[in-house]
Amino acid sequence: MLSKEELLIQEYENFLNLREQEGLPFSSKEVSTLLKAYKRSTKQLNKIIKISDKQQDELKEVSETLNAKSLKVQSLLDNAEQGFLSFGDDFIIDAEYSKECNRLLGPALEGKDISDVLYLQDGAKKHFFKEALINVVNEESELIKDSMISLLPNEVIVNRRAIKVDYKILTNKTFMIVLTNITKEKLLEKKIEKEQEILKMIVVIVSEPTQFYELKDDFERFAKNKRVFVNPNFSFKINLNELYRDIHTFKGNFSQLRMQNCVKELHNLESKLSVMNTDENCTNQDLLDILNTSDMNEWMDKDLFIIKEILGIEFFDKQYKLEVDDKFIFNIEDKITYLLQADNQHMNTYEGILNEINKARGTTLNTALSIYPKLCQEIAKVQNKRVSDFKVIGGEDILTPMHFKPFIKSLVHIFRNAIDHGIEHPDERVEIGKKEYSSIVCLIESNKDNFKIIISDDGAGINLEKLKDKVLKAKLFTEFELSNMSESSLLELVFIDSLSTNDEITKLSGRGIGMGAVKSEIEKLSGEIKIESKQGEGSKFILKIPTSLHGTLINIASNERDNITVEYILSPVVNRATTYLQSDMKINIRNKATFSYVLINETSIKDYCSYIHISGLVDVSVCISYDQFLLDKLLNEFNQGYPIKKEDLAEYRESISKEVINIIVGNALFNPYDKTVLEITTPYILEYDELVSHSTHHKIAHVIIDTEYGEMQILVGKF
Amino acid sequence: MDNLEIIATKSSPEINFNRETNILSIIGESYPENTTVFYEPVFQWLETYIDTVQDQVTVNVELIYFNSSSSKVLMDLFEFFEDHSEEGKNIVVNWIYDEENDAALEYGEEFAEDVESLTFNLVEK
Questions:
Q1: Stretch A140-154: mean pLDDT, rounded?
Q2: In the list A70, A143, A501, A573, which could disulfide-bond A466, CB 3.0-4.6 Å?
Q3: Helices A260-278, A301-311: crossing angle, 10 deg rounding
Q4: Is the pTM of the predicted complex or chain greater than 0.80?
């Protein structure tokens, strides 16, 4: 298309041709029009040049300012101690980036793929990063875009530096990231965290010193005697399981006291043991080797050093005093008990003293369990879960006998499991209409026959399907067997060692050890544990412990005076005898053991009886006697059915009677950690007349275990 | 006859010539690839329009950036209005510029120099 001027020029060229042909010049009018057009054109041209010059000046000025500005910006960015770089949707880094980027991510970044630079070798992370950014590019809603960006990884580690990454979308397809070196902050954060951990440990230890001293002693003994735990008479599996359970409980207890270094070591050992569990070729020797190469003695050192640094060496001196106190009280108590039996007139006074001593020495069940609410809060905090504050209800009038301690300690697993597996995260809870704060209830109920500890939570309950899966995977039961199980039998499966419904192994639980420990501890006390669980609504653990054996000694309010020997000697012996008859000898027990105090000359001793004398911490004898039929049954089991000549029978009966008491008392009272506390003689046989003439008129503790083959009688006292 | 409406692009201004209100606006930036082609319909429309209009015509020009060929178009445009105002049409041109933009004011002044009968206002935005 031609412009006005061009049209005019064309017209005049035509004129010019025409005039040439005609031999005539232009008329003055024509020249004037041409001049006018020329003038106009020149004027326009000048104006355009003028405007254009102005525009160029302006452009130059702008570009100079821009250059200066961009230099300034570059220098600002270079000195900002933050890295700025941009890249397109091909992830290739642009040429313009600040110097800090080189310091943080290495030289020559231009043209490199940002994901390669940030994630080096980690293919999975690279993939995630790219995918996430592509999603951001493709997303149209600004709101969703922003929230997607907030999900992008905001911290990376490159060349051992912690780098914070902020994302900005520059244009539709260009991203900018701002990199900040937060290595120092991270280190500081870690240091602060560590110091906080130490502080927490100190606080727990100072507020629960007894627990600390006991655990320290327990573990020292354990470390010293670790070889004892590999019993050559037992299979590797049994030894492994026992050891695993002990280690797991230690770990739980140390973690309760926040002794993190020790927890770490135990966790490592546990991991090693769990590898052995899957290895069919492992033997007891391997177990011994692992124990021998573990310097358990030193595992507490780091934590103890810190404690010593902060609390001073005196803190450990106090422990020594406490131990003396304990034994001291022990002796006083024992003496008063005998005075009480001999001097009926001042019974009330003695009882008063005993109760006071008991209170000083022992903790009530309520106090013993009161460490758990605090622990629950701590575990919940770590896991970002919320638990309402709660207190242990009841049990203020129940004293906790010494031998209950392992049981009390084992309860840690129930509380941990409740939070680890039961309680949902707050978001999840709110979503399903539950209160944000979950509730855990720990209730103690008691009557004259037993007491119950009821621990319940309002979490997700036990996932039976998951549990079944695990059982199937572990090949413990077939699918058919499982389908025929009642719900309560299925719930019982949680007690199987090495089974847990949590897929993730945390430092605290998830290895499936734990619930087995609770069950084995409660069984030592002749108690039982029952689980009620409703999916989505929570779980309830009901632990029932009979007081028929412990009752007289645990009820402060009771008029019956507790006897130290019952607590330390009779209960474990009776429990052991019961398990021995039932589990080892497969003899059914018809009635629960009955307990009473008797005078020796008022009771009849059965025909076959043997004695063991126990000295050291206490000074008592244990006597076990049997109905003949029961003894012969035991003999038969021992002899594996081989017939015995009539003339040898008496001798055999005598030796089996000694053997059984040796096994029962030995197993019940043998403390592998500490052999000095109790000394047990070899069994001997004593005639009834001899016994009566020996014995004082002290009351002795008397228990009858009624079996399908007759009675077993256990006597404990001074005779 | 319809109104003339051309939507703005990155390199061409929005043109909105309304024959009811007799307000003709050119707003935006002007550096189209082929300036003559872009503005041809504008001139065509104006040729038809200017003969029919009786009332006052207001021309609002608000250009942030224009290239050299656009400045030639502008001169042609103002000459067109100048010619018609000489012939008795009542035409007002408002050259609208930003307070911050000194250069725009200067360009307006340059254009204003060439007109006599046409009312050419320099209007600060």
A1: 79
A2: A501
A3: 170
A4: no
